[in-house]
């Protein structure tokens, strides 16, 4: 393949936020006169590529972006000084092609490579390839990558280094029967997880023999697909632990320091959702012990770069080694904010052979930071969403807000890559301020064109347990045992939202009246008086008025909502409702419907006159098609396996198929017992969101045939 090379010297066409827009970010920049690199290539894409480019610009280092054809106009290619096409949209034909990346390095004359996270960031062969060609790898040495990337080897090394480890089997599990035997010896529950890789892929918790057998199969398949290595290990699962990790920084001169901890317990499917630093749970004694063990492990493997040692911490603050990530973590910004250290800069300095200028005594904790991972996904089903961002506005105008992203308005969220839209980070002088700023930032974040998980994020940060810091890795499962139901409005919030919708409807009517210059009497405008507002199937009748820049809605029960200080900066409306702040986004509006986004959730509100409401209520209800007889894919992806054929009889909950999306394997189960009437697809096919996989015979038809 011919590599496409584009040299860019002109300013990028898209608005790129400067480092100062990080808000509260206070980089402890060394501004060292030492020679670093003239040009650096980023072997990655998306937000992490953009993040690395920002620090390189600060250091005066030219940058090279590599990209697939799907990313030809991506933000990281616009920000970089040069860009090189290395393949097609599939990662296996682009971002994982070491040979093409090496050609891009030689083509551009880059002296160093930053791998970001994911892709080749923890690939020993890639680091070795660069070393063999005299290219600096902005990461640790090959030995550290190899032994820490193998969970079996890393556990043994950690134990030898004096690091606390979780009880379990230190060898490779030989098969499902062996896994069951080990689980019975260790004692349930157990964790089955891939020996290679990370990111929550290839991990399953099992509470009995049947779950071990199923978990072994799914974990090995997932590990093979994600890392090319299906080896598994098994260990005791610590029920309701906290996931707390230590950031370390080491150089090639024997120096190693820790930069405090990150609390990463809010997870779903073993993938982090919200992180914070510091942790509410650790005291100084435990923090120091964890940090010292993390540094001991780094020294044991001759580590040199930024790295993260993950621990599970129980209710008594006993902590156990989980794994070491030999790369920059997704959640590194919260550490940067509370320490003032630019971790990317430190990685580049270490890769250039320079010693750390920071000592352990330089590292303190100043303030508090949260990070919310904003994903393009259905938060109720936890499934990825694809599409074009036709409206996208980041809340970077608010104080203490930083947004790390790799997209802009008009970008496409495709099925080929991780569905992350951005990392939304807030900083405050204490936890309460940082948390308040996170709520405000989520409310002001405008994302249109794909589903997103802001409703879940917004709901989580309001949960009393989260606010108090009483969390564990089972927080989401315990808080939403039947799955996240969507953001549930209180009656007070419903009334406020009804009032806002009625206010917007009245404002539109007033504007229309002025535009058409109707002969309506100013004393009795047609928008005044009582209106019926429908929200979520509930009809509210309100008496509305607008005097002295205050809009008032009086509900039938007597409750009054008064809106004042209304500010509208399209599409965000800010006001006070009974002297309490409210932020709402106006998505669209027509003569009767007001489409609003509130606390991250879309609501369609209908405003009618009383006569219009009476007419509407006598209209026949429109029937919708039932999908009880179908199994459809809830997300775009690839059909990995199909376990039934036409004529098969299935039971409720039986596995019908496995669809792989974003490198995660998802089981699709039979919604009820029945007979397979039709199969629509074949294994290996690429499926669209909602595409039918199989159809069950109608229950009435099946019952008639059984007579």
From TrEMBL:
Q: Domain named Biotin carboxylation: which ranges?
A: 36-481
Organism, scientific name? Monosiga brevicollis
**Every Lipoyl-binding domain range:** 622-697
Which reactions appear under catalytic activity for this entry? butanoyl-CoA + hydrogencarbonate + ATP = (2S)-ethylmalonyl-CoA + ADP + phosphate + H(+); propanoyl-CoA + hydrogencarbonate + ATP = (S)-methylmalonyl-CoA + ADP + phosphate + H(+)
At the top level, the lineage of the source is Eukaryota
Q: Does the record's keyword annotation contain Protein biosynthesis?
A: no
| UniProt xrefs under Gene3D superfamilies | 2.40.50.100, 3.30.700.30, 3.40.50.20, ATP-grasp fold, A domain, ATP-grasp fold, B domain
Compartment(s) where it occurs, according to its Swiss-Prot or TrEMBL record: Mitochondrion matrix
Gene Ontology cellular component annotations, sorted alphabetically: mitochondrial matrix; mitochondrion
InterPro entries for this protein: ATP-grasp, ATP_grasp_subdomain_1, BC-like_N, Biotin_BS, Biotin_carboxylase_complex, Biotin_carboxylation_dom, Biotin_COase_C, Biotin_lipoyl
Q: Which GO terms describe its biological process?
A: lipid catabolic process
Supply the NCBIfam families for this chain: PRK08591.1 (NF006367)
**What protein does this entry describe?**
Propionyl-CoA carboxylase alpha chain, mitochondrial
Which key words are in the record?
ATP-binding, Biotin, Ligase, Lipid degradation, Lipid metabolism, Magnesium, Manganese, Metal-binding, Nucleotide-binding, Transit peptide
Pathway-wise, it operates in: Metabolic intermediate metabolism; propanoyl-CoA degradation; succinyl-CoA from propanoyl-CoA: step 1/3
Entry-linked Pfam families: Biotin_carb_C (PF02785), Biotin_carb_N (PF00289), Biotin_lipoyl (PF00364), CPSase_L_D2 (PF02786), PCC_BT (PF18140)
Give the source lineage, highest ranks first.
Eukaryota, Choanoflagellata, Craspedida, Salpingoecidae, Monosiga
- Does Magnesium count among this protein's keywords? yes
Q: Name one GO molecular function term.
A: ATP binding
Task: Classify the main location.
Answer: mitochondrion
The protein's required cofactor(s) are namely: biotin
Domain ATP-grasp positions:
155-352
Q: What is its EC number?
A: 6.4.1.3
